[in-house]
Design goal:
5-stranded antiparallel beta sheet, mainly beta
Length: about 575
C-alpha cells in the first residue's frame, strides 16, 4: 500500500490531506509544498456619503457584510456616527454590490439613534426568508435617551423598513450576537448590557422580550456565538473588562446557559473571534487587546479554552479581529485592526493549523483613518477572502490580490527491485509544474549516501534491504513537491533462492533436477562465503540453460534466467 500525502506550506504553515493509492506494501509519501506568495491587498475602494466627509463626521463604527438583495453578491450595511461631543446622530447605510468591485448606494439610509452606533449584525428576524439588520447603540451623550438598538426588516431587494423596531437594553449596548438560543425557531439576540450580557428572546416579528442577564464586570468588549461543544446547541463567549476575562457559556438549547470557562487574560481586552485554529475539529478563540496583542485560546470541545503561551504583537493598539483563510492554505488566519501613528493599519497573522500565528503582515490604510469593525468575505468572487473595514471616512473594501503559485508535481517513477552493487537508475522527467518550470530535482536515496541532483540519476546499494527514495522538486517560484518510491535490494542468496523456486515450479524431470542441483550448490557456496565456487556453479547453470534454450526451456524464459544469473554473478 502506497500512501500519498498532499499538503501545502505557506510561510511555515501546514495543512494535511491523506489519500491512499495502491502501489506497494511499504508506505511511501507523495506531497506538494507551496511557498506562499506575498499576501497583498493592492486594490481598494471606499464606500461613503457626504456625511462621512463632513467636518463634524466621525465615520463608520460598525458594519456587516451579507447578500441583502439575493443576487449572489455580498453587500455592505454600516452604521456610523456624526457630530461632536456630547451631541451625536447615528445613521445607517446599505451599499449593494453591482459587480466584482463596484457598489451602488447608499440605496437605503436613515437616522437610527441619538447615541453612538457601535454594533451591527444580520439575521432573518421575522422568518420571511429575507435578511434583516440589527444595530445597537450606547454612550452617555446629551441627547441619547437610553441604550438601545433597532431592527430593520429587509425585503430581499436591499430595502429596509426604516426607522425599524426599537428595543431597549441596559448600559452601553454596543455588541449584538444572533441565534436561536431557546429552540423556538425564532432569532434571538445577545447584547452587552450593564457589565454583562443580556439575552433577548425574538418574537418572530423583529421585536424581543427580555431574557436572562449574565453579569461579568465593568463592561463587555465583544461577543461571539458558536457551538463550542459540538452538541448542536448555540453557546456564547465574550470578553470582559475589569475583571479582564474571557467567559464561555454553554447553551442547553432551551434558553438556559451555564458558565464553562472564566479565563483571566491580559488587561484591556477588545475583540474576540472563533474558529478551529489547530485543525482538531474543536472550536478555538482569538482575542485582541489594547496593548497590541493577539492571543489564541485552544478549545477542548467541552467549553474550556486554554491561552497559548506565546502571543502575537501587532503595531499599536489591537482592535476588532476576524478569522478567515486569506492565503488559501486551508488554515485559519487572523486580520485585526490597529491604530498606530501615523497610519492606521490592518494586520494579518497567518495561521499554521497547529495553533500558532505568524508575525503580522501590515497593510496601511492611510493617516487619520481610525479603524473600527472588520469583516472578511470574498466580495469579487475570485476565490480569495477580502476585507471590509469600518473607518471614520467610510467603509473601506480591501481586495485580496494575492496570486497563489500552484506547486509542482513530483514523479519519482515506479518502485524497483535490484541486487546489491547494481546501479539503480532514477528518472524524474515525468515531474511537471502547472504554471511554471521545475528548477531543481533533488534525490535522497535512503541509504545514507550523498544526495544527487538532476532529472536522471543513479545509485548503487552496498547492502540488501528496502530503501525509500525521495525526489524533491522545486519550481521557479520556490514551491516544492515530494514523491517517494521503494527500492528493494536483494542479496545474491535471496536472488538464487527465489530462482530455485521458479525453476522447480516451471520445469519437470531431468532438466529440473539438473538445473536445481546447480542452483542448490551455488546457494550452499554463497552461504559458506565461497564466492568463486558459487560463480562456477552459476556459470554452469547458464551454460545448460543456453544449451536447452528453445528446446526443454522456452526461449524467452531461458533469456530471462540467463540475464538474472549474470546479474547475480556480477553482484557476488
Amino acid at each position: 500500500m502506497k500512501k500519498k500525502w498532499t499538503f501545502a506550506i505557506y510561510g511555515g504553515i501546514t495543512a494535511l490531506l491523506l489519500m491512499i493509492v495502491v502501489k506497494s506494501s511499504v508506505a511511501v509519501v507523495k506531497s506538494s509544498i507551496a511557498m506562499a506568495p506575498p499576501l497583498s491587498f493592492d486594490r481598494s475602494i471606499l464606500l461613503a456619503d457626504d456625511r462621512h466627509t463632513s467636518s463634524t463626521g466621525h465615520g463608520g463604527f460598525s458594519l456587516i457584510a451579507a447578500d441583502f438583495n439575493t443576487d449572489g453578491r455580498p453587500d455592505i450595511a454600516a452604521s456610523f456616527t456624526v457630530g461632536r461631543w456630547p451631541y451625536f446622530d447615528s445613521f445607517y447605510d446599505v451599499f449593494l454590490a453591482t459587480g466584482a468591485d463596484s457598489f451602488s448606494g447608499p440605496v437605503s439610509t436613515g437616522k437610527i439613534s441619538d447615541c453612538y452606533g457601535y454594533g451591527a449584525n444580520t439575521a432573518d428576524f421575522n422568518g420571511d426568508g429575507n435578511l434583516d439588520l440589527v444595530f445597537v447603540f450606547g454612550g452617555s451623550t446629551a441627547e441619547c435617551g437610553g441604550y438601545y438598538g433597532t431592527v430593520l426588516l429587509g425585503d430581499g431587494a436591499g430595502n429596509f423598513d426604516w426607522p425599524g423596531h426599537i428595543f431597549y437594553g441596559g448600559n452601553s449596548v454596543s455588541r449584538a450576537g444572533v441565534g436561536d438560543f431557546n429552540g423556538d425557531g425564532k432569532i434571538d439576540l445577545v447584547t452587552d448590557d450593564d457589565g454583562g450580557i443580556l439575552i433577548s428572546w425574538g418574537k418572530g416579528d423583529g421585536t424581543f422580550t427580555t431574557g436572562p442577564h449574565l453579569h461579568c464586570g465593568y463592561d463587555v468588549g465583544d461577543i461571539a456565538v458558536l457551538d463550542f461543544d459540538n452538541n448542536g446547541k448555540l453557546d456564547i463567549v465574550h470578553t470582559c473588562y475589569s475583571p479582564d476575562v474571557v467567559r464561555a457559556y454553554s447553551g442547553n438549547g432551551s434558553g438556559a446557559f451555564s458558565m464553562t470557562a472564566d479565563i483571566t487574560m491580559l488587561e484591556d481586552l477588545v475583540g474576540i473571534s472563533v474558529g478551529d485554529f489547530n485543525t482538531d475539529g474543536k472550536m478555538d478563540l482569538a482575542t485582541s487587546d489594547y496593548k497590541g496583542q493577539v492571543t489564541l485560546l485552544i478549545g477542548n470541545g467541552f467549553g474550556d479554552f486554554f491561552p497559548q503561551p506565546s502571543v502575537t504583537a501587532v503595531e499599536g493598539q489591537a482592535g476588532n479581529l476576524v478569522a478567515a483563510d486569506f492565503d488559501k492554505d486551508g488554515n485559519l488566519d487572523i486580520a485585526v485592526t490597529n491604530w498606530p501613528n501615523p497610519n492606521a493599519v490592518v494586520s494579518v497573522l497567518l495561521g499554521d493549523g497547529l495553533g500558532h500565528l505568524s508575525a503580522p503582515l501590515f497593510f496601511p490604510l492611510g493617516p487619520d483613518t481610525w479603524l473600527t469593525y472588520i469583516q472578511a468575505i470574498d466580495f469579487d468572487n475570485d476565490g480569495s477572502i477580502d476585507l471590509a473595514v469600518g473607518t471614520y471616512k467610510g467603509v473601506m473594501i480591501l481586495f485580496n490580490t494575492s496570486v497563489t503559485n500552484q506547486p509542482p508535481v513530483a514523479e519519482a517513477g515506479p518502485d524497483k527491485t535490484f541486487l546489491v552493487k547494481e546501479t539503480v537508475p532514477f528518472d524524474g522527467s515525468s515531474s511537471n509544474d502547472p504554471d511554471g518550470d521545475i528548477d531543481i530535482y533533488s534525490w535522497d536515496f535512503g541509504d545514507g549516501s550523498p544526495a544527487a541532483t538532476g532529472t536522471l540519476v543513479s545509485n548503487a546499494y552496498a547492502q540488501p534491504g528496502q530503501f525509500t527514495v525521495t525526489l524533491t522538486v522545486t519550481d521557479n517560484a520556490g514551491a516544492t513537491a515530494i514523491d517517494q518510491l521503494l527500492v528493494v535490494v536483494k542479496a545474491p542468496t535471496t536472488a538464487v533462492s527465489d530462482l530455485i523456486t521458479e525453476v522447480k515450479s516451471s520445469l519437470v524431470g531431468e532438466i529440473q533436477n539438473s538445473l536445481g542441483a546447480k542452483l542448490d550448490s551455488a546457494l550452499e557456496a554463497l552461504n559458506k562465503k565461497n564466492g568463486p565456487a558459487a560463480v562456477n556453479k552459476l556459470k554452469a547453470f547458464i551454460n545448460e540453460v543456453e544449451a536447452q534454450k528453445g528446446k526443454k526451456i522456452p526461449a524467452d524464459v531461458a533469456g530471462q534466467w540467463i540475464a538474472l544469473v549474470s546479474r547475480i554473478i556480477a553482484s557476488i
